[in-house]
Amino acid sequence: MSNEEMIYQLLDELEIDYERLDHEPITSVIEAAEKGIVLPGQQVKNLFLKTKKGRKFYLIVLKDEKIADIKQLAEKLGEKRLSFANDEDLMRLLQVVPGSVTPFGLLFDREKKVQLIVDEDVDPGLTVGFHPFVNTTTLNIAYSDFLRFLEKVDHEALRLDC
After folding, report:
1. Distance between alpha carbon 144 and the CA centroid of its chain, in Å?
2. Is the pTM of this model over 0.85?
3. Which of 6, 57, 125, 145 is the most exposed place for a label (fewest CB within 10 A)?
4. Residues β-bridged to residue 20
5. CA dist 92 to 36, 62, 70, 89, 101, Å?
6. C-alpha angle with apex 66: 30 to 104, nearest 5 degrees?
7. Largest CA distance in the chain
8. pLDDT, tens digit, for every residue of 107-144?
């Protein structure tokens, strides 16, 4: 079973409703807008970061128009420095390729090496959209259902101003 099939199966098992939008391949919300693709709900982006020595990893979810202050975020997390994780770490920990980064990948982080951080500007009263491991589809779900997904995969979202 593919990762994409697994996420649909898990969403169905959890009775999480989603709006599916199939589209051209996109790697960012900006690219979607440039291609004339209109995505429903609040738009978010996902960043996969690591500490200097690569011992800790962070998946950051923030509103698409916000630019994360990685230096300030490192300070808030008590880290000396954060940088973008490499493609190998992304595949090993979340089983996803660059351009399709998704919190759904936490399904595979059974050793809890990845801390999820959701920017405080992401409105929990709205929906959020994530790729189901492929960048040709976006699944839009209620934020409350996203929290149910996280509970199922035994992860918590730390809310911070990124």
Report:
1. 15
2. yes
3. 125
4. 139
5. 33, 23, 23, 5, 13
6. 75
7. 41
8. 999 999 999 999 999 999 999 999 999 999 999 999 99
